[in-house]
Amino acid sequence: MAHLDVVGLGMNVLDILIRLDEMPTWQRPGSPSRVLVDGGGWVATALVAAQKFGLHTGFIGTHGNDQNGRIKHQLLAQYGVDLTYDLEIPHPENQLCLVYVRASDGERFFSGPTDFSTHFLDPSVLDRAYITQSQWLHLDGYHHQAAL
Length: 148
Known about the structure:
Blueprint: E1 6-9, E2 13-20, E3 34-40, H1 42-52, E4 57-63, H2 67-77, E5 82-88, E6 96-102, E7 108-111, H3 128-132, E8 136-139, H4 144-147
């Protein structure tokens, strides 16, 4: 087992960022000047930041069994986050968020599912040694039973 400085247990969200001159309304939906797909979520974002600062990190969480789930998994992998315990669930990815970004000032509006809480991590799959070998544990409370 590789030494990890930080292990994160929580949510990894697939953000779809839509850059617009003005925020959309029903009357004026706007026209995107740019659309990007990127990783998000408190734990996943923190782990990528820690990797960029030279720390070794590992993620514990889930990803769906569809293209969106694979993209989400790959976005963490490209930064070197250990994904030994990023478990594929037998359902399509549901941790997705549309992020509307106003070009002039960066103001953001987030639009995601009303209920992310449909596929929690089963605490029985956790590896205590994997978690306790790290210096820090970052939790966001999403997989609340596993976090206990």
